[in-house]
Design a protein that fits this description.
Residues 30-51 have a biased composition (Acidic residues). With 492 residues, this protein is an alpha+beta fold. Helix 13 (441-451) crosses helix 14. It has 14 helices and 16 strands. The protein is 33% helix and 16% strand.
Length: 492
């Protein structure tokens, strides 16, 4: 790293004069089309610490004495004298935004309203909303393969009602018991406590006996076990694949998301044996099944999800993050939406690719500092003032670096074809404020699932996924029910 050179008094005076002339002759016009709110953002990467006075001067010296950086005290934007910047990968960025039309870009115009599709707009009962996601087809699959498992394990001398075959109504009764445990926060109780009239009353014993409930949960199956050896090499998710696809299809076709959506991952807690179980230390459960999903940023409706299957995931040659973004966003291809995601998904090629056919989507997300497309000139320097921002552009792409702390640097990428602007109240870039407003769609959905969860202890990962599907169905059905209820009240 080159040594930092301080500026003498004459250089400072000349630069200050040029800043005053530039500020009087130009206007700071924002081209952002998004409505942004105030929030905090945490850094994604640590950098070298800053010594000396943190407040610094309005004119900051940099690594290369041949490059001139000026800091505008009003906007906290650092600009580079060079017209273009090149990264390690030879990616070319410009330091100023080119002239663009005053008309709003077509890709930033959304013509479809958020809400349930036509078939779901007339559902005003919670049970009807829930049946949208757990359809009769899913119930019949469970009944068929549960009875097959019961037949394989039935003993001749066990002819009592506890060990008989099940039916669709009884499976729905099991789902009702699981729903009730979620609503009453009883999912952590053992079946002995659930079916104890002294402890929980007669809510559960009125439906079925404890032994029958335990028996059905133990033998509940969702696939043909005879086909697993042939399917496992190509699809490790085979034990729940069929009902999962039906469930996700219903999520896709029952709701139209708004203009802002979020992609992130959910971790279904599970500590048993699973070929694609992973460890994420910053998650509450830490061990479990990772499910990347896409949610509406406002209503938190989950309309697509794809399980992460580890090394067996077929990405068709695409990087993992790019594959999940393109596949998860398939229901909204071509209908002009913006995707907010974190640095596990975001990349420069992905942002450019989403602008083209058949995607027609924009992207805003944090980006890792080790990406070779980031030019060295916008990275952290010891003399750079805290709270300053640097922007660079590549057509519709806007890349920024923001320094919230002396040893922290945040990098964000936007493909919304907007000029870099700073919020007057917070001093933060508007792109960061928009990211903070829309980044929590999946996290909030996950939190809502944990607040009303039917998940029970199990040593079978297909049951953990089954419980996760039920939790997702609770939230999605609630979103549709609340939307329809609000709509009918407005008409009255």
């Amino acid at each position: 790293m080159a040594l930092t050179r301080g500026l003498n008094d004459s250089e400072i005076a000349s630069l200050l004069q040029s800043v005053l002339e530039d500020s009087n002759s130009s206007e700071n016009v924002s081209e952002s089309e998004n409505e942004l709110l105030e929030d905090d953002i945490q850094s994604d990467v640590e950098d070298e610490s800053l010594d000396g006075n943190e407040s610094g001067e309005n004119i900051a010296s940099v690594q290369d004495p041949n490059q001139e950086f000026t800091t505008h005290s009003d906007s906290r934007i650092i600009t580079v004298a060079l017209p273009t910047l090149r990264s390690k990968s030879k990616h070319c960025w410009t330091t100023s935004k080119g002239n663009s039309s005053t008309r709003t870009s077509l890709i930033n115009i959304v013509r479809t309203a958020r809400g349930p599709t036509r078939g779901c707009k007339s559902l005003y009962e919670p049970i009807l909303c829930f049946k949208v996601f757990f359809t009769d087809e899913i119930i019949s699959e469970i009944v068929q393969w549960t009875n097959a498992e019961i037949y394989l394990n039935r003993r001749i001398d066990n002819a009592s009602a506890t060990f008989r075959d099940t039916c669709a109504d009884e499976i729905r009764a099991v789902l009702g018991i699981l729903t009730l445990t979620a609503a009453l926060n009883n999912n952590h109780l053992s079946t002995d406590d659930l079916f104890n009239n002294t402890y929980c009353g007669t809510l559960y014993t009125a439906t079925m006996s404890r032994d029958r409930f335990d028996f059905l949960i133990r033998y509940l199956r969702m696939d043909d076990k005879a086909l697993r050896p042939a399917l496992r090499p190509t699809d490790a998710f085979a034990p729940v694949r069929k009902i999962w696809d039906i469930f996700i299809r219903q999520c896709n076709t029952s709701y139209i998301p708004g203009s802002h959506v979020t992609i992130d991952e959910q971790l279904l807690g599970f500590r048993g044996r699973c070929p694609f179980k992973i460890y994420i230390p910053n998650k509450p459960n830490k061990y479990g099944i990772k499910i990347p999903m896409i949610c509406d940023s406002t209503t938190k409706y989950m309309f697509n999800a794809i399980p992460y299957l580890g090394k067996t995931t077929n990405t068709a040659g695409l990087p993992l993050g790019e594959f999940y973004v393109k596949e998860l966003s398939r229901p909204i291809h071509g209908i002009y939406r913006n995707i907010t995601c974190d640095n596990w998904f975001t990349s420069i090629p992905l942002a450019k690719g989403l602008l083209n056919e058949p995607y027609k989507l924009t992207l805003v997300g944090t980006i890792r500092s080790n990406k070779r497309e980031i030019p060295e000139e916008i990275k952290n320097t010891r003399a750079r003032k805290v709270g300053t921002t640097m922007f660079c552009y590549d057509g519709p792409l806007t890349l920024l670096s923001y320094k919230p702390k002396p040893s922290k640097m945040v990098y964000l990428l936007s493909s919304c074809n907007e000029k870099g602007t700073i919020d007057d109240k917070t001093g933060k870039p508007d792109i960061i404020l928009y990211y903070n407003e829309t980044k929590g769609g999946v996290d909030t959905f996950d939190q809502m699932c944990s607040l009303m969860s039917c998940s029970r202890k199990t040593n079978r990962w297909p049951m953990a996924v089954f419980y996760g599907m039920l939790n997702a169905a609770f939230i999605n059905s609630y979103v549709i029910y609340a939307h329809n209820l609000i709509s009918i009240k407005k008409r009255l």
